[in-house]
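Appendix B.2, paired examples.
Example (i):
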Amino acid sequence: MAPGIDPSLVTGAWREGDPPGGRLFADLGDLTLDSGATLPDVRLAYETWGTFDGSNAVLVLHALTGDSHVVGEAGPGHPTDGWWGSVVGPGRPIDTDRWFVVAANILGGCQGSTGPASLDPDGLPWGGSFPALTVRDQVRAEVALADRMGIDRWHAVIGGSAGGMRAVEWAVEHPDRVERLMLLATSAAASAEQIALSRTQVAAIQTDPAWFDGDYYDGPVGPLAGLDLARRIAHIAYRSETELQQRFGRATEMDGTWSVDSYLQHHGAKLVSRFDAGSYVVLTSAMDTHDVGRDRGGIASALSRVTARTVVAGIDSDRLYPLHQQQELADLIPGAGPLAVVTSVHGHDGFLVEAEQVGELARDLLADPVERQYIRREASAAE
């Protein structure tokens, strides 16, 4: 097991009885899944910022290992700082003095929403009996949350990576409820390579001797080594070859360990301390199902349903979600402008790291026409 991992840890999931932090909870009842199964007693954990005035709600959708804690410091109930605090907040591009921002932990996640670490109707952890999900199932739960909150129409839905998958599903399935749309470093359908990487990560977890077919929650240890390895595989794909070479090259640590290996160990240990292996399997498997064209006449037919004014952005160094995938979205969504290309050495993670470039795209999307002209004049003057 990698250094820095507590060998007695079973899961990094938030569990009933833990401090709630800034979370609110919505009990949504039973949810019928694409598989035909019914998931009972669904709960989503969510957080909000700002004040709802009936027309200013913005939905921010997190990526695979994110959660509802978009803004705020680490503390009881929240193991890390908010993941997009440089973009969302008072005076930020997504200004919470103006917009009512909502972020929910994804269905199947492990930070307060119903997932494998949650208790089933019998009061036991769901574990390996938790049903398979699709991206559409996850959006179905978010729709139920919006209904519960009295939000009939989002001023904007914004998501990157796995969050972008859900964002585009929102706009395709519920075009009347999405006024504006921002898709970052995402795709219309999961590619063969993305699925291959996903299945390799799932295999790393499921071959861990402590996996126990997903029923490890009441045991002495969880599949920590498998989750650590899965994260390391993913993290290589999240960054760019150029960045890794520039930062680490062939350097070694004092103990002879390759510096790049120490870096991956660090990120694996960080995730293990705050995430759950069962959720990782469920969520990556759900991402594999992503295909907006399924049962809708193909991708072009599905995207033609979108009525939202749309910004599609990609990262020029992203090898996991390459630019041609965002170009397809920009070409086929009727209300999309030209593809916005974010310049970054950070690869796929550029949608989280390049706050200034991404923030300006969000600010422009949310602005009214007069404000957009001003923003663009300011941008041109700065060049």
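Example (ii):
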Amino acid sequence: MSQFQGRQLFQKSLAIAVVTLMMGSAHAASSDKEELQKLREEVQALKNMIQQQQQVQQQQQVQIEQVRTLPVQVAAAPAPTPSALSTLKSKAGANVNIYGFVRADAEYKFKGGNGQFNRVDKVDLNGVVGPNGVVNPNSDRFASTLNASRLGLEFVAPVQGADVGGKLEIDVRGGSNSDTVRLRHAYLTYNNWLVGQTTSSFLSLETQPEVIDFNTPVGHGAFRTPMVRYSDKLGANTSFAVGLEQGRADNRLPTATAKLSQNYADGKGVVTGRAMLQETRVRLEDGKGKEYNDETELGWGVGVGTKFKLNDKLTLTADYSHVKGDDKLIFFTDGMTYKTDKSGKGIDLLAYDSMIIGAGYKINPQWRTNIAYGAILFDNSPDGKNKSLQQGWANVLYNPVKPVTFGLEYVYGEREVDQYKDDYNVQPTDRVGRDSRLSLMAKYDF
């Protein structure tokens, strides 16, 4: 019982005792009826007062119980203050996202080609003598650069009833010396349509193993070209893209491409199928510098690739392409489009098979490693051109904190040619060139 309730009960008992005493005294002192009536009225008044106090006490108790059962109200946490860059807007009102990385690369070349990063298609053949009389002149060299750094802008425009966006991305790998600004991606999107320059739909970056070398390994492609593309979903895990793309400069018509992607269940990875079709045109000359005949053949290609996550640590990748009459889509195929037939007035398109397999292993949240192998086999390469290219590599990457990555990678590769003779009319000791390099990388993503 509360103190308030005890106090009320005491007051009620005291009032009744007083009234009873007064009634007894009045009855003993006088029998006057008016006095008795007056006493009765006072008793009734006291009873009414006690009843009112009981009602007030009951109402207060109900209110206390109602307050006790109300849910506890917790003040909402204040919304975080957005950073200046997260709220960046263009003059037209588009939301702008800035991204990119600063990257430093160093490389020691035991054997290889002229320049940093992968040049396996042009490595020195064994025994070849350079213009200064040095055998294998590009061996035992050190190189470093920061020109692989990248800067990009992504845009999302506030257009009612439409999904409008775009991207602009550059690096400093342009020009003959790889030291000028180069446009990588530049496109706009409107709902399912894309217009501009980006990676060809015939390629499958999502099914390639991780590599440090900026020029990427044999068997890989990352050709970026102007295009018009339409993409959409066929289901929750299935998507497609079809488009017309700028291909070889001599072609009269754009290249038609198509790609189908299917995600595995539970986010285990993806499988892709691709196709391309183009009219490959070659402009033959009469030996006097005047064009006299345009030869055309049907060029085409198909590809399939997959990336599958076996568990939280191990991921496997594989990709294969067969291409005929094109030297743009896959790296290290320059000049492997056609050769003239026996008449000298016609062409035979060249074909090749490109493949790459790899495995990536996540040691812990900071460390991961990759090992892979790639190859390109040319079906009917002309004399003096590469007959085959192959390359293997292994790397280890370390993330001490999320935006910072350090990497170490070793690459070994070979190229083989037939009937080779260099510009100095010197025959090498054999027709194989070897690529052997150790690379270091440090990168900060922002």
